Amino acid sequence: MVTVDDRTGVDVSETGHVKGNVGSWAAVYIIIAAFIFGTLALILGSVPLWIAAGVAIVAGAAIGLASNIMEQAY
């Protein structure tokens, strides 16, 4: 069950944590990893890391879209 915190107005679960499902958090972590790959690719000049970064960003975006990540923002 999801409730609204009276003090902040934020939707929270019964445990007091902000709402978000596993798919949404997986998308966030994958996109963060993609930016790390991209940073390393830029520093090292590695084409395979650039490709890995691009694939990870697309995969993270697809998972985020599939898990309705933006519906959980409000």
**Which sequence of SSEs, written as H and E, runs from N to C?**
EEHH
Mean pLDDT: 82
Q: Residue ranges: pLDDT <50 for 5 or more in a row? A: none
> What form results from the Cα inertia axes?
elongated
Brief digest:
The protein has 74 residues and is mainly α. The chain has helices spanning 22-44, 47-66, and strands at 2-4, 11-13. Helix 1 packs antiparallel against helix 2.
Walk me through the structure.
- The chain has 74 residues and is mainly α.
- The chain has two helices and two strands, in the order ββαα.
- It has a two-stranded antiparallel sheet with strand order 1-2.
- The longest helix is centred in the middle third of the chain and has 23 residues, at 22-44.
Features:
74 residues, mainly alpha, two-stranded antiparallel sheet, 2 helices, 58% helix, elongated
Secondary structure layout plus pairing:
Blueprint (H helix, E strand, L loop, with lengths): L1 E3 L6 E3 L8 H23 L2 H20 L8
Antiparallel strand pairs: 1-2
